[in-house]
């Protein structure tokens, strides 16, 4: 028990034994740090969203927990969405639902979210210029349960529903529309200045994690659970919202979310019987019998995701090198994704060659992406660099022919520049550590120096921000936060947030006008070619270093716990969990 005590940051739970509780293990080194149903930079981890959504249900919930990705109306506040014939507006119908304090959930609560996000969009982590809320030109309340959103032009219905409308979070205006704990609630959100002040108040309150369970602000919920306790060390206890009146009610009274510093500590907790729903390393699949003998079953949890390391194109040291396509091609050619997937991930990962998930077949994937545009070859990578003005010196490539002409290093790359990269990588995963070491060896074969630093995922995300070249925060060059996949898509895997110029999650400031045009087409056109054309372009232009996409996790679930499928969007849904025997 000594390893378990030191490894589990959220404290140790005794074997539940009770059918009124479930102990769920959060990913290693993940500490929940946000519940506010408005995402801000540094708080984008999928698990934060999963916790928030069982407290405040989305307007339109998309997930794959039924076995395929679709609109989950049981855990949505909207019951219908009717698009106009010209695809320039949608009218939403709300269900007959109530907040936990008995007040009805109305269009006013949706408008509250709309006003806050519209006036504070640049502080909203999901914002990309030209996307939500920019795409919505007006909000019109019809009555308490109906409202219309007008668009600035016609849009692809599939994209609008799955990617934009699904981001709307309905919030209790009658409780939250104020600027301090002691202030009275009023219609402050309806003026720009008021909306900014309310936003600031809510975001500041969200930073006070130790007060999540006690602050009256967070007690009015719409979802199947409410907060019982929320520790800054990582343990979260959720209890059934007995006032819940939606279709996705809880089956189990209490959910205990446990945080661990390492997978080894979590595996020890499984062996001790203190976890009902946990995971093992992919490398431990060979010993899964040791867990099935303890009364668990093992299931792979695959994701609708891609995995990558973003470049910081504005980094003052290496940004000019990263902006050269040939340099990115040489880097990509040095990544042996097939061997990494087979050996390091024990067959629980698939190569990623572009921006569309490849673990599941889809019409979105281009033939060019599937075909691996830049096959692994250290020799080809070395030749590509030497053909562009680089010379090997003491094992590292050095730019010896600066300039933008043929056979030169490229615009902005100075003579004497060494091809040295550094990455800040997520800690807590043996597979990730092994992959970084393998990459380091392979890059060395090409003549690229690769320095690795590690930190918990929240630290990695907080240090991986958009920046200008002269910004002190622009020191990062490469970042990796994808031990369980870097980016989980909505049902429609467009890349507007990730790869459009100025996209809210375009961490490295990648920008390509032609790609912007293709991304815009995926959101506005219903053409079947729109997504494959985008897939082809980014498989070839390499906005990031594509890496193997691992299973979200290899789950170890106590026998008798079931009634659900594992959501390929990487959310967990406690209300669906049930003891079936």
UniProtKB/TrEMBL annotation:
It is found in: Cell envelope. Signal peptide: none annotated. It comes from the Bacteria. This is Peptide-binding protein. It holds the Pfam family SBP_bac_5. Residues 76-504 form the Solute-binding protein family domain. The keyword Transport applies. InterPro entries: Peptide/Ni-bd, SBP_5, SBP_5_dom. It comes from Streptomyces violaceolatus. Keywords: Signal, Transport. Its main location: other. Belongs to the bacterial solute-binding protein 5 family.
